[in-house]
Amino acid sequence: MAERMKAHAVSRLELLDLAASLRLRVAADREGEWTAGSPPDILADLAGRIRSCRLCPLAATRIKAVPGAGSASAEILFIGEGPGYEEDRQGEPFVGKAGQLLDRIVKAMGLSRDAVFIANIVKCHPMRDPSTPEARGNDRPPTPEEIAACRRYVDRQIAAIAPKVIVSLGAVSAKALLGTSEGITRLRGRWAEYRSPDGKAAPIPLMPTYHPAALLRDETLKAAVWSDMKTVLAFLGRSVPK
Ligand code: SF4
């Protein structure tokens, strides 16, 4: 009897191992099968993958993943740091107070949310204390490991949209996209270039600027951001508000 129970336990362990390896195999297969369709199709495929993604620990505590939103043919792609409290609940990027400020900036540029694309470096909410997801003020920057795990999505979003300009919002986004350790104060307002991971696509001009959340904390930064946005508009040949 004891021998039969032991044999049963071993076979159950083997089954669990087999299931785990099959799950890894399916994940690896999906990784190798990125959709190659129109930009809207690619973005929709990426959004589906992001919503079911469990590649980093943020999957365990998110309420909703936040793939990004906007036009698949946007000239300008804004990339922030990561979803916060409101974004986690709504599944939409930049919908809290910082998002409302970004909306006003986009509108002042003569554009609308639907005409640009807005995304983040990581797609799930990084929390200081994951045991209290209902708490406000619980945001933290993503870790290098979380950024590395999520990087495949933002790179593919950039490739699909092929924007004329990327605007990185805040230090985390600028550092990740440019692969630099320079601070945002030195980076902002100076054109840089985003390069695709395989180096095959043409570099995309990237304007680093402050995150809207930083403007909420320090209003004196608004002038610098507005100056950066006017530089972007001039580069695109659009009319530049006074
Ligand atoms: S943050 Fe990115 S890598 Fe991590 S679970 Fe969410 S989608 Fe996946």
Please, could you describe this protein's structure?
There is one protein chain. This protein is an alpha/beta fold and 242 residues long. It has helices at residues 2-31, 39-51, 85-90, 97-108, 144-161, 171-178, 184-187, 212-217, 222-235; strands at 69-70, 76-80, 117-120, 165-169, 192-194, 204-209. Helix 2 packs antiparallel against helix 5 (144-161). Strands 1-3-2-4-6-5 form a six-stranded mixed β-sheet, sandwiched between helices. The protein has two domains: 1-33; 37-235, Uracil-DNA glycosylase-like domain (Uracil-DNA Glycosylase, subunit E, 3-Layer(aba) Sandwich). The site of iron/sulfur cluster has 14 residues, from helix 5.
Layout of strands and helices, then pairs:
Blueprint: H1 2-31, H2 39-51, E1 69-70, E2 76-80, H3 85-90, H4 97-108, E3 117-120, H5 144-161, E4 165-169, H6 171-178, H7 184-187, E5 192-194, E6 204-209, H8 212-217, H9 222-235
Parallel strand pairs: 2-3, 2-4, 4-6
Antiparallel strand pairs: 1-3, 5-6
The structure holds iron/sulfur cluster.
List cofactors, ions and other ligands.
Answer: iron/sulfur cluster
CATH class of the largest domain: Alpha Beta
CATH topology of the largest domain: Uracil-DNA Glycosylase, subunit E
Poorly predicted ranges (pLDDT <50, ≥5 residues)?
A: 1-10, 15-29
Distance between the termini: 86 Å
Number of domains: 2
CATH architecture level-2 label of the largest domain? 3-Layer(aba) Sandwich
Question: Which strand order does the major sheet show?
Answer: 1-3-2-4-6-5
Structural class: alpha/beta
Determine the fraction of residues in helical runs and give it as a percent range. 40-55%
If you compute it from the alpha carbons, what radius of gyration comes out, rounded to the nearest whole angstrom? 21 Å
